[in-house]
């Protein structure tokens, strides 16, 4: 099948085909995700926690995102490449947001950007789409608001919060988003939003009734250090495999079992003997 575009993402919903999205932060994993045939690859600002070792995503800079997006770009041929706009790059002014998104597209090679939240962000979405930059919205748990929220928990459980999220979702669709990520919201609310919108919803911890799903690559591959959220399924234990491989390597070097002659280069016949003279 051909390249994934904004148009084919929108068509997927009409055709009832679930969208597959996964994060990637570097060239080798971008190649693997693309080869696996995922529809959308997200250079998430989860980069901060997952790859750069920060406690939250608020430390991630625009330069970080551009740098990693460029690496991922080189590994992606078919999937649609989306890059997160990092903390505070779309709140100071519409102009600043346009400039930041422009860098992710122009320098990074992203085909779309993702922004957390609604409210004043809605106008930014409108201006980005007007400028020809496709936008993915993001509602529910907004990790860039971790300090305001005081932690990571399910959003939209009560009626008032749920109504606000539904209104925000409609506003983002009207402003021009072509897809909407829903993070850690009750299954029932995600189902309602998915029915209400024409654009596809992409859930993470939002239940099976979304139009697509996204997971953090390192969660699904078993590469995440420490606790993994309950909504993630681990499809492999690459962290354990990597640790075992490194332990065997260390043991082999210490016991002189590696390297062997197989891993060595040789001089032409007689040269070594003459050198020893
Ligand atoms: O940064 C990220 O990985 C994300 C996904 C969880 C949607 O925003
Ligand atoms: Na993110």
From TrEMBL:
Cofactor binding notes: Binds 1 Mg(2+) ion per subunit.
Binding site for Mg(2+): 45, 84, 116
Source species, domain of life: Bacteria
Keywords assigned by UniProt, alphabetized: Cytoplasm, Magnesium, Metal-binding, Pantothenate biosynthesis, Transferase
InterPro entries in alphabetical order: Pantoate_hydroxy_MeTrfase, Pyrv/PenolPyrv_kinase-like_dom, Pyrv_kinase-like_dom_sf
Listed pathway(s): Cofactor biosynthesis; (R)-pantothenate biosynthesis; (R)-pantoate from 3-methyl-2-oxobutanoate: step 1/2
Gene3D superfamilies: Phosphoenolpyruvate-binding domains (3.20.20.60)
Annotated Pfam families: Pantoate_transf
Subcellular location field: Cytoplasm
GO molecular function, one term: 3-methyl-2-oxobutanoate hydroxymethyltransferase activity
Cofactor(s), by name: Mg(2+)
Catalytic residues (positions): 183
Gene Ontology cellular-component terms listed: cytoplasm
Catalytically driven reaction(s): (6R)-5,10-methylene-5,6,7,8-tetrahydrofolate + 3-methyl-2-oxobutanoate + H2O = 2-dehydropantoate + (6S)-5,6,7,8-tetrahydrofolate
Keyword Transferase listed: yes
GO terms classed as biological process: pantothenate biosynthetic process
EC annotation from Swiss-Prot or TrEMBL: 2.1.2.11
Family named by the database record: Belongs to the PanB family.
Functional summary from the UniProt entry: Catalyzes the reversible reaction in which hydroxymethyl group from 5,10-methylenetetrahydrofolate is transferred onto alpha-ketoisovalerate to form ketopantoate.
Subunit structure: Homodecamer; pentamer of dimers.
Protein name: 3-methyl-2-oxobutanoate hydroxymethyltransferase
Native species: Thermaerobacter marianensis (strain ATCC 700841 / DSM 12885 / JCM 10246 / 7p75a)
């Amino acid at each position: 099948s051909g390249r994934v575009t904004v148009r084919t993402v929108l068509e997927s919903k009409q055709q009832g085909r679930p969208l597959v999205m996964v994060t990637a932060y570097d060239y080798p994993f971008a190649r693997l995700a693309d080869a696996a045939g995922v529809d959308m690859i997200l250079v998430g600002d989860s980069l901060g926690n997952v790859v750069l070792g920060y406690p939250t995503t608020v430390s991630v800079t625009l330069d970080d995102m551009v740098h990693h997006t460029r690496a991922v770009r080189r590994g992606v041929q078919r999937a649609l490449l989306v890059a997160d706009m990092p903390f505070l790059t779309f709140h100071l002014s519409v102009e600043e947001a346009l400039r930041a998104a422009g860098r992710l597209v122009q320098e990074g090679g992203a085909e779309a950007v993702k922004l957390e939240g609604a409210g004043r962000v809605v106008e930014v979405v409108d201006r980005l789409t007007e400028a020809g930059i496709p936008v993915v919205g993001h509602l529910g748990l907004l990790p860039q608001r971790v300090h305001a929220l005081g932690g990571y928990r399910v959003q939209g459980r009560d009626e008032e919060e749920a109504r606000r999220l539904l209104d925000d979702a409609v506003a983002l669709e009207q402003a021009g988003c072509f897809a909407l990520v829903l993070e850690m919201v009750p299954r029932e609310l995600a189902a309602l939003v998915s029915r209400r919108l024409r654009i596809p919803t992409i859930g993470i911890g939002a239940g099976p009734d979304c139009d697509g799903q996204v997971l953090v690559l390192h969660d699904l591959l078993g590469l995440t250090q420490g606790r993994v959220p309950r909504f993630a399924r681990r499809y492999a234990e690459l962290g354990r495999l990597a640790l075992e491989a490194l332990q065997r390597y260390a043991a082999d070097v210490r016991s002189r079992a590696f390297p062997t002659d197989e891993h060595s280069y040789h001089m032409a016949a007689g040269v070594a003997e003459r050198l020893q003279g």
